[in-house]
Amino acid sequence: NNIAEYKALIRGLEEVKKINPERIDVYCDSQLVVKQLNKKYKVKNKGIIPLFNQVEEIIRTIPGKIYFIWDRRDNNFMADGLAKRALAEEEINKRKKAAKDLKIERKNDYFLVSSSKPGKYYKVDINIPQCECIDFLRRAGKLKLECKHIMAVRNFLQKVERKRETKNRQKMKILILSKMVKPQVWENAFNELNKKEKLNLEFIIPKTDERETIKKYLKEVEVAIGGSFSKENIEQAKKLKLIQIPFAGVDKLDFDLYKNCQGIYICNIHSNRTAVTEHAFALVLALAKILSLMIEIKLGR
After folding, report:
1. Total domain count for the chain?
2. CA dist 159 to 86, 101, 108, Å?
3. Could you give the 3-state DSSP secondary structure of residue 209?
4. CB 67 within 8 A of CB 23
5. Is 66 in a helix, a strand, or coil?
6. pLDDT in tens, 105-151
7. Inter-axis angle of helices 49-60 and 2-16, nearest 10
8. Any idea what DSSP says for residue 140?
9. Domain that holds residue 195
10. What distance in Å separates the CA atoms of residue 152 and residue 104, rounded to the nearest whole number?
11. Judgement on whether residues 175 and 281 belong to the same structural domain of the protein
12. What's the predicted TM-score (pTM) here?
């Protein structure tokens, strides 16, 4: 809580110094903090020392006189609420960080989560949720927070759900007609960028005449990178939702062709090949998320 007080004080002083006040009265419900700032107590806590030093640095930039005054917490409900909120956020972030390294073992109706001590596991019932660790029983429970073991189980379940969604996700077909970047470079770049998102992508890289390729594949792809299209092409492109054209192709684009195609997004970019591929992948990712959301809406989720 004292750390939260210091952080709030730093934020307040940063704002106040902009108006060059002649006098500042700072009310704080922590006697320890007030006495430290008034030089009656020495700061010994390693977590507070850098915050105290930061306050001192800010004070030196403020010409006005600053008074630190202790005020009972009961006299300031708003300050009390802000302090509790800051403390809760700090406690949550601390547990989130610790939860990343824990191992999860799934049982029939509960989970076993590893401890920081080798060979020690805690039982977690995620349905309640409840954990048998000391943190949950004594501290997290009182603060109405989840312990790191419960957070670890939630992370585990989210990963399982993402894998399931990835497995069930329909394949997105991408027709690569761009001449700016070699076809294989496109595929390699997309695969590298896709390691995290794991979109289900299928690349169609033409090895024959472009016009024949467009005629053959455009009706089944959702994304086309590069290329120029005729009215006949667009009419048969029932699934097409995104076209990326290089900057050099803008002057050749017949915009009248797309006036009645409100379901197709058209974009371009003028940069190096790395930027072009990253831009294209970002658009594909955005499109995939839109399609996923549309499916969920249809299913009533």
Report:
1. 3
2. 29, 14, 18
3. coil
4. yes
5. strand
6. 999 999 999 987 788 899 999 999 999 999 999 887 777 889 999 99
7. 20
8. I
9. 170-298
10. 7
11. yes
12. 0.47
